[in-house]
Design brief:
The protein is an alpha/beta fold and 337 residues long. Helices cover 25% and strands 28% of the residues. α3 packs across α4 and α3 crosses α9. The chain starts with a strand and ends with a strand. The structure holds zinc ion (2 copies). One zinc ion (ZN) binds next to loops.
Protein backbone atom coordinates (compact mmCIF):
# COMPACT_ATOMS: atom_id res chain seq x y z
CA UNK A 1 0.00 0.00 0.00
CA UNK A 2 1.01 3.62 -0.37
CA UNK A 3 1.80 5.38 2.91
CA UNK A 4 3.07 8.86 3.77
CA UNK A 5 5.78 8.11 6.31
CA UNK A 6 7.40 10.79 8.45
CA UNK A 7 10.88 9.24 8.73
CA UNK A 8 12.06 12.00 11.05
CA UNK A 9 10.98 15.60 11.59
CA UNK A 10 10.64 17.49 8.31
CA UNK A 11 11.23 14.31 6.27
CA UNK A 12 8.08 12.88 4.76
CA UNK A 13 8.35 10.06 2.24
CA UNK A 14 5.68 8.46 0.13
CA UNK A 15 6.52 4.80 0.05
CA UNK A 16 5.00 1.43 -0.74
CA UNK A 17 4.89 -0.71 2.41
CA UNK A 18 3.06 -3.94 3.27
CA UNK A 19 -0.61 -3.63 4.26
CA UNK A 20 -0.61 -3.81 8.09
CA UNK A 21 -1.32 -7.13 9.80
CA UNK A 22 -4.25 -6.95 12.18
CA UNK A 23 -4.46 -8.40 15.68
CA UNK A 24 -7.56 -10.41 16.71
CA UNK A 25 -9.10 -7.29 18.28
CA UNK A 26 -8.47 -5.02 15.30
CA UNK A 27 -10.06 -4.31 11.94
CA UNK A 28 -8.33 -3.33 8.74
CA UNK A 29 -9.81 -0.08 7.44
CA UNK A 30 -9.35 1.13 3.87
CA UNK A 31 -9.05 4.88 4.27
CA UNK A 32 -11.36 7.04 2.14
CA UNK A 33 -10.84 10.50 3.62
CA UNK A 34 -8.28 11.86 6.06
CA UNK A 35 -8.30 15.45 7.30
CA UNK A 36 -5.05 17.33 7.84
CA UNK A 37 -4.89 19.01 11.23
CA UNK A 38 -2.52 21.46 12.90
CA UNK A 39 -1.37 18.56 15.06
CA UNK A 40 -0.15 16.74 11.94
CA UNK A 41 1.96 19.78 11.18
CA UNK A 42 3.37 19.75 14.73
CA UNK A 43 4.20 16.05 14.35
CA UNK A 44 5.82 16.70 10.96
CA UNK A 45 7.91 19.46 12.54
CA UNK A 46 8.91 17.25 15.49
CA UNK A 47 7.03 19.32 18.08
CA UNK A 48 4.82 16.62 19.55
CA UNK A 49 5.23 13.40 21.53
CA UNK A 50 5.44 11.16 18.47
CA UNK A 51 8.21 8.67 17.73
CA UNK A 52 9.36 8.18 14.17
CA UNK A 53 8.97 6.69 11.63
CA UNK A 54 5.26 7.47 11.81
CA UNK A 55 2.24 7.68 9.55
CA UNK A 56 0.29 10.68 10.89
CA UNK A 57 -3.41 11.39 10.29
CA UNK A 58 -5.93 11.08 13.15
CA UNK A 59 -9.07 12.43 11.42
CA UNK A 60 -10.04 9.61 9.09
CA UNK A 61 -12.92 7.53 7.87
CA UNK A 62 -13.11 4.56 5.55
CA UNK A 63 -14.46 1.10 4.89
CA UNK A 64 -13.69 -2.08 6.82
CA UNK A 65 -12.06 -4.70 4.61
CA UNK A 66 -11.16 -7.31 7.23
CA UNK A 67 -11.96 -7.96 10.89
CA UNK A 68 -10.03 -9.88 13.54
CA UNK A 69 -11.63 -12.88 15.29
CA UNK A 70 -12.50 -10.86 18.42
CA UNK A 71 -14.20 -8.00 16.58
CA UNK A 72 -17.97 -8.24 16.97
CA UNK A 73 -20.64 -6.09 15.38
CA UNK A 74 -18.53 -4.98 12.43
CA UNK A 75 -18.09 -6.60 9.04
CA UNK A 76 -16.26 -5.95 5.79
CA UNK A 77 -18.08 -3.24 3.86
CA UNK A 78 -19.07 -1.22 6.95
CA UNK A 79 -18.37 2.51 6.70
CA UNK A 80 -16.57 3.68 9.82
CA UNK A 81 -15.15 6.78 11.42
CA UNK A 82 -12.23 6.07 13.74
CA UNK A 83 -11.72 7.57 17.17
CA UNK A 84 -7.93 7.84 17.26
CA UNK A 85 -7.72 7.78 21.08
CA UNK A 86 -6.69 4.51 22.70
CA UNK A 87 -7.15 4.42 26.48
CA UNK A 88 -5.87 1.74 28.86
CA UNK A 89 -8.99 1.90 31.12
CA UNK A 90 -6.96 0.83 34.19
CA UNK A 91 -4.66 3.75 35.08
CA UNK A 92 -5.35 6.42 37.73
CA UNK A 93 -7.16 8.74 35.31
CA UNK A 94 -9.01 6.08 33.32
CA UNK A 95 -10.45 4.69 36.55
CA UNK A 96 -11.79 8.17 37.27
CA UNK A 97 -13.32 8.61 33.79
CA UNK A 98 -10.68 11.11 32.71
CA UNK A 99 -9.51 9.00 29.82
CA UNK A 100 -8.03 11.86 27.82
CA UNK A 101 -5.36 12.01 30.53
CA UNK A 102 -4.72 8.25 30.39
CA UNK A 103 -1.19 7.57 31.62
CA UNK A 104 -0.79 4.99 28.86
CA UNK A 105 -2.48 7.13 26.20
CA UNK A 106 -1.94 6.12 22.59
CA UNK A 107 -3.50 7.54 19.47
CA UNK A 108 -3.72 6.51 15.85
CA UNK A 109 -1.73 8.98 13.79
CA UNK A 110 0.12 10.27 16.86
CA UNK A 111 1.83 7.32 18.55
CA UNK A 112 0.60 4.57 16.18
CA UNK A 113 0.32 4.60 12.41
CA UNK A 114 -2.73 6.56 11.28
CA UNK A 115 -4.76 7.71 8.32
CA UNK A 116 -2.24 9.04 5.81
CA UNK A 117 -1.97 5.59 4.25
CA UNK A 118 -4.27 3.42 2.18
CA UNK A 119 -4.97 1.04 5.07
CA UNK A 120 -4.91 1.33 8.87
CA UNK A 121 -5.12 -1.37 11.56
CA UNK A 122 -7.75 0.01 13.96
CA UNK A 123 -8.50 -1.41 17.45
CA UNK A 124 -12.15 -2.43 17.78
CA UNK A 125 -12.92 0.12 20.50
CA UNK A 126 -11.97 2.91 18.07
CA UNK A 127 -14.49 1.89 15.39
CA UNK A 128 -17.75 3.83 14.97
CA UNK A 129 -20.18 2.90 12.22
CA UNK A 130 -21.54 5.70 10.07
CA UNK A 131 -24.54 5.25 7.83
CA UNK A 132 -26.15 8.53 6.89
CA UNK A 133 -23.20 10.79 6.21
CA UNK A 134 -20.52 10.61 3.54
CA UNK A 135 -16.98 9.49 4.34
CA UNK A 136 -15.53 12.99 3.69
CA UNK A 137 -18.04 14.25 6.28
CA UNK A 138 -17.22 11.36 8.62
CA UNK A 139 -13.57 12.48 8.60
CA UNK A 140 -14.78 15.58 10.50
CA UNK A 141 -16.21 13.54 13.37
CA UNK A 142 -12.85 13.56 15.19
CA UNK A 143 -12.44 17.36 15.29
CA UNK A 144 -16.16 17.64 16.09
CA UNK A 145 -15.66 15.26 19.04
CA UNK A 146 -12.91 17.58 20.31
CA UNK A 147 -15.27 20.56 20.00
CA UNK A 148 -18.02 18.63 21.82
CA UNK A 149 -15.61 17.92 24.67
CA UNK A 150 -14.62 21.59 24.83
CA UNK A 151 -18.23 22.75 24.95
CA UNK A 152 -19.16 20.08 27.50
CA UNK A 153 -16.68 21.76 29.79
CA UNK A 154 -17.50 25.36 28.86
CA UNK A 155 -21.25 24.63 29.11
CA UNK A 156 -22.81 27.59 27.30
CA UNK A 157 -26.10 28.58 28.91
CA UNK A 158 -29.38 29.54 27.27
CA UNK A 159 -29.22 33.08 25.98
CA UNK A 160 -25.44 33.38 26.30
CA UNK A 161 -23.60 35.71 23.97
CA UNK A 162 -20.59 33.90 22.55
CA UNK A 163 -17.44 35.29 20.96
CA UNK A 164 -15.18 33.06 18.86
CA UNK A 165 -11.68 34.07 17.82
CA UNK A 166 -10.69 32.21 14.65
CA UNK A 167 -12.92 31.17 11.75
CA UNK A 168 -10.92 28.16 10.59
CA UNK A 169 -12.52 24.72 10.56
CA UNK A 170 -12.41 24.45 14.37
CA UNK A 171 -13.82 27.92 14.97
CA UNK A 172 -16.66 27.23 12.54
CA UNK A 173 -17.45 23.89 14.21
CA UNK A 174 -17.60 25.75 17.53
CA UNK A 175 -19.89 28.31 15.89
CA UNK A 176 -22.33 25.68 14.66
CA UNK A 177 -22.34 23.78 17.93
CA UNK A 178 -22.71 26.95 20.03
CA UNK A 179 -25.78 27.83 17.96
CA UNK A 180 -27.21 24.41 18.83
CA UNK A 181 -26.93 25.01 22.56
CA UNK A 182 -29.43 27.84 22.83
CA UNK A 183 -26.99 30.74 22.84
CA UNK A 184 -28.54 34.02 21.71
CA UNK A 185 -25.85 35.23 19.33
CA UNK A 186 -22.39 34.17 18.22
CA UNK A 187 -19.83 36.74 17.09
CA UNK A 188 -16.78 35.60 15.11
CA UNK A 189 -13.44 37.39 14.68
CA UNK A 190 -10.89 36.52 12.00
CA UNK A 191 -8.31 38.20 9.80
CA UNK A 192 -9.71 36.81 6.58
CA UNK A 193 -12.88 38.17 5.05
CA UNK A 194 -13.59 34.97 3.09
CA UNK A 195 -13.68 33.05 6.37
CA UNK A 196 -15.93 35.66 7.97
CA UNK A 197 -18.34 35.40 5.04
CA UNK A 198 -18.51 31.66 5.60
CA UNK A 199 -19.08 32.27 9.32
CA UNK A 200 -22.06 34.49 8.43
CA UNK A 201 -23.46 31.85 6.11
CA UNK A 202 -23.16 29.29 8.90
CA UNK A 203 -25.12 31.45 11.32
CA UNK A 204 -22.79 33.95 12.99
CA UNK A 205 -24.88 36.93 14.11
CA UNK A 206 -21.93 39.26 13.67
CA UNK A 207 -18.48 39.04 12.18
CA UNK A 208 -15.60 41.32 13.06
CA UNK A 209 -12.41 41.60 11.01
CA UNK A 210 -9.21 41.29 13.05
CA UNK A 211 -7.84 44.48 11.57
CA UNK A 212 -6.22 45.96 14.67
CA UNK A 213 -9.42 47.77 15.72
CA UNK A 214 -11.31 44.64 16.74
CA UNK A 215 -11.06 45.32 20.50
CA UNK A 216 -12.78 48.64 19.99
CA UNK A 217 -15.40 47.19 17.64
CA UNK A 218 -16.18 44.40 20.10
CA UNK A 219 -16.54 46.85 23.00
CA UNK A 220 -19.10 48.75 20.96
CA UNK A 221 -20.98 45.57 20.10
CA UNK A 222 -20.91 44.18 23.63
CA UNK A 223 -19.94 46.83 26.20
CA UNK A 224 -20.00 44.31 29.08
CA UNK A 225 -18.26 41.62 27.05
CA UNK A 226 -19.41 38.10 26.24
CA UNK A 227 -20.57 35.34 28.56
CA UNK A 228 -18.38 32.80 26.76
CA UNK A 229 -15.27 33.55 24.71
CA UNK A 230 -13.63 30.74 22.74
CA UNK A 231 -10.11 30.94 21.37
CA UNK A 232 -9.77 28.83 18.24
CA UNK A 233 -6.59 30.49 16.99
CA UNK A 234 -3.85 29.11 19.23
CA UNK A 235 -2.19 32.52 19.06
CA UNK A 236 -0.96 33.54 22.55
CA UNK A 237 -1.49 37.28 21.95
CA UNK A 238 -5.10 36.57 21.01
CA UNK A 239 -5.69 34.47 24.14
CA UNK A 240 -4.22 37.27 26.25
CA UNK A 241 -6.64 39.86 24.98
CA UNK A 242 -9.57 37.43 24.77
CA UNK A 243 -9.84 37.55 28.56
CA UNK A 244 -10.67 41.24 28.32
CA UNK A 245 -13.74 40.37 26.23
CA UNK A 246 -15.21 38.05 28.89
CA UNK A 247 -18.01 39.68 30.88
CA UNK A 248 -18.14 39.44 34.67
CA UNK A 249 -18.75 35.84 35.80
CA UNK A 250 -18.07 34.65 32.25
CA UNK A 251 -15.80 31.98 30.82
CA UNK A 252 -12.83 31.75 28.49
CA UNK A 253 -12.33 28.43 26.69
CA UNK A 254 -8.74 27.97 25.53
CA UNK A 255 -9.20 25.55 22.64
CA UNK A 256 -6.59 26.51 20.04
CA UNK A 257 -3.17 24.94 20.60
CA UNK A 258 -0.61 27.60 21.52
CA UNK A 259 3.13 26.89 21.23
CA UNK A 260 4.33 24.95 24.29
CA UNK A 261 6.83 27.60 25.38
CA UNK A 262 4.46 30.56 24.97
CA UNK A 263 3.56 32.69 28.01
CA UNK A 264 0.89 35.35 28.43
CA UNK A 265 0.28 37.96 31.09
CA UNK A 266 -3.01 38.05 32.98
CA UNK A 267 -4.17 39.78 36.15
CA UNK A 268 -5.06 37.39 39.00
CA UNK A 269 -6.93 40.28 40.63
CA UNK A 270 -9.11 40.60 37.55
CA UNK A 271 -9.94 36.89 37.61
CA UNK A 272 -10.84 37.18 41.30
CA UNK A 273 -12.76 40.43 41.12
CA UNK A 274 -14.64 39.61 37.95
CA UNK A 275 -15.39 35.96 38.83
CA UNK A 276 -13.80 34.69 35.61
CA UNK A 277 -13.34 31.06 34.62
CA UNK A 278 -10.53 29.92 32.34
CA UNK A 279 -11.17 26.49 30.86
CA UNK A 280 -8.80 24.18 28.99
CA UNK A 281 -9.79 21.30 26.74
CA UNK A 282 -7.55 18.50 25.52
CA UNK A 283 -8.55 16.14 22.73
CA UNK A 284 -11.55 13.87 23.24
CA UNK A 285 -13.01 12.35 26.38
CA UNK A 286 -15.55 9.77 25.27
CA UNK A 287 -17.32 12.30 23.07
CA UNK A 288 -16.79 10.51 19.76
CA UNK A 289 -20.14 8.70 19.75
CA UNK A 290 -21.94 11.99 20.43
CA UNK A 291 -20.08 13.54 17.51
CA UNK A 292 -21.19 10.64 15.27
CA UNK A 293 -24.82 11.35 16.22
CA UNK A 294 -24.40 15.08 15.60
CA UNK A 295 -22.81 14.48 12.20
CA UNK A 296 -25.39 11.91 11.13
CA UNK A 297 -28.31 14.09 12.17
CA UNK A 298 -26.99 16.99 10.09
CA UNK A 299 -26.46 19.20 13.15
CA UNK A 300 -23.31 20.59 11.57
CA UNK A 301 -22.48 21.39 7.97
CA UNK A 302 -18.86 20.43 7.36
CA UNK A 303 -18.44 20.24 3.59
CA UNK A 304 -18.07 24.05 3.30
CA UNK A 305 -15.15 23.75 5.73
CA UNK A 306 -13.09 21.78 3.22
CA UNK A 307 -10.74 24.23 1.53
CA UNK A 308 -9.35 21.67 -0.89
CA UNK A 309 -9.09 17.93 -1.35
CA UNK A 310 -5.88 16.28 -2.47
CA UNK A 311 -4.50 12.82 -3.16
CA UNK A 312 -2.09 11.25 -0.66
CA UNK A 313 0.79 12.25 -2.93
CA UNK A 314 -0.13 15.90 -2.30
CA UNK A 315 0.51 15.65 1.46
CA UNK A 316 4.13 16.93 1.50
CA UNK A 317 3.17 20.12 -0.34
CA UNK A 318 0.04 20.54 1.79
CA UNK A 319 2.08 20.41 5.02
CA UNK A 320 4.50 23.00 3.67
CA UNK A 321 1.54 25.14 2.65
CA UNK A 322 0.14 24.90 6.18
CA UNK A 323 3.55 25.65 7.70
CA UNK A 324 3.65 28.83 5.62
CA UNK A 325 0.16 29.74 6.88
CA UNK A 326 -1.24 29.71 3.36
CA UNK A 327 -3.69 26.81 3.58
CA UNK A 328 -7.33 27.60 2.82
CA UNK A 329 -9.55 26.13 5.57
CA UNK A 330 -9.36 22.37 6.10
CA UNK A 331 -7.29 20.31 3.67
CA UNK A 332 -8.49 16.75 3.24
CA UNK A 333 -6.68 13.81 1.69
CA UNK A 334 -9.06 11.66 -0.32
CA UNK A 335 -7.99 8.28 -1.63
CA UNK A 336 -8.95 7.02 -5.07
CA UNK A 337 -10.67 3.68 -5.54
ZN1 LIG B 1 -6.75 17.06 14.88
ZN1 LIG C 1 -5.41 4.89 31.23
Amino acid sequence: MLAAIIERPHHLELRRVPVPDIKPDEALVKVAASGICGTDLHIYEGQFISRYPLVAGHEFAGIIVKTGAEVEGFAPGDMVACDPSIYCEHCYYCLRNRQNHCENWQALGVTRWGGFAEYVAVPKQCLHKVKSCSLPEAAFIEPLACVVWGLEQARPELGDQVLIYGAGAIGLLHLQMALRTGTSAVTVVDKRTDRLELASRLGAARTVPADGHEDHTLKELAPRGFSLVIDATGVPAVVEKALGQVQNAGKLLIFGVCPQQARISISPYEIYRRDLKIIGSFAIRKTFAQAVDLMESGAVDVLPLIGRTLPLTGLPDALEEMAAGKAPMKLQVQMGE
